[in-house]
Amino acid sequence: xxxxxxxxxxxxxxxxxxxxxxxxxxxxxxxxxxxxxxxxxxxxxxxxxxxxxxxxxxxxxxxxxxxxxxxxxxxxxxxxxxxxxxxxxxxxxxxxxxxxxx
Length: 102
Hints:
By secondary structure, the chain is of the alpha/beta class. The chain contains 4 helices and 4 strands, in the order βαβαβαβα. Helices cover 40% and strands 21% of the residues. The protein has a 4-stranded parallel sheet with strand order 3-2-1-4, with helices on both faces.
């Protein structure tokens, strides 16, 4: 199974930490994953675990760059599941991928 995780998130926080720990544990178990997120210290931890990362700013005012990063990640990775972590990431869920969105 291939999972694309999408999280806007703060620099640090409970949900961000929970997401990080889940992605790292799933990577250790051998699950194929990618992440779309804002730049933070988490990026180095994902990459060290072999999880590729695409950066996006998740701006509500200028959505095109984030939508492009998500679209490119979906097109290149072809995930079975797209997991949007928390509300802001969910606002970027693409309608044509609704069947795979969580």
